[in-house]
């Protein structure tokens, strides 16, 4: 696999991106670039340090710190650990509080600038599967393959609800629906790198597809384009 080889997978919350990107990276022997985890890590530190959303300089320096010290480690199978220095923050970045504040934090242009810099650096080391909202549109416009995963909102709500219940989280389906609607709205309407279908992206509607079907269709697209 050549250096700098990039496959981007963008899409709205709970469209299946994370699962698909993780497995694809594992099966193709590429580094996973989970940009959502990076924005979540910035949000976690911001909350821990009591930084307000209007304290731009402090937010930017937290983002720089995360950009320089976050590692996404693929374990056996398709398990992923998120490390900040030697601290394992895999679980903490999935907390309800982080979920609530991650969209406003990631809408701050100075935070995004630091994240984009770190994300491009990660791809210099070798091939990546980059997953997020603006991977194909802003961070890697020249990616070899660009995928946009989507699914009907009710299906995305159902998937996220099941995921949370399996983790023994105490939520109702109405709460999950509200959170997804809120995230969709902030992620799509912010001025810095809004969620949109990147130029040249192939759209896959995963509403009625299994994870395996999605992965095999992306592998086919990669093979057709000579990427992988
Ligand atoms: O993929 P996720 O749910 O872990 O992402 C969490 C949030 O991070 C999402 O609501 C918006 C933000 N995000 C972003 O702004 N840009 C990205 N490339 C990835 C995520």
């Amino acid at each position: 696999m050549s250096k700098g080889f990039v496959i981007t997978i963008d899409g709205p919350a709970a469209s299946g991106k994370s699962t698909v990107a993780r497995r694809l990276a594992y099966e193709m022997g590429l580094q996973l670039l989970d940009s959502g985890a990076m924005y979540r890590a910035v949000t976690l530190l911001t909350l821990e340090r009591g930084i307000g959303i209007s304290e731009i300089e402090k937010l930017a320096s937290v983002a720089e710190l995360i950009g320089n010290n976050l590692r996404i480690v693929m374990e056996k199978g398709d398990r992923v650990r998120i490390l900040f220095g030697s601290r394992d923050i895999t679980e903490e970045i999935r907390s309800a509080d982080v979920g609530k504040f991650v969209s406003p934090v990631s809408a701050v242009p100075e935070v995004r600038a630091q994240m984009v810099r770190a994300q491009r650096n990660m791809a210099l080391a070798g091939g990546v599967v980059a997953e997020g909202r603006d991977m194909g549109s802003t961070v890697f416009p020249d990616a070899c393959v660009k995928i946009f995963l989507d699914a009907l909102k009710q299906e995305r709500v159902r998937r996220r609800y099941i995921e949370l219940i399996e983790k023994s989280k105490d939520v109702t389906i109405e709460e999950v629906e509200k959170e997804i609607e809120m995230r969709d709205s902030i992620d799509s309407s912010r001025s810095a790198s809004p969620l949109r279908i990147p130029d040249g992206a192939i759209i896959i509607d995963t509403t009625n597809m299994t994870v395996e079907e999605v992965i095999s269709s992306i592998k086919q697209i990669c093979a057709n384009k000579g990427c992988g």
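The two ends are 7 Å apart (CA to CA). The chain has one domain: 6-208.
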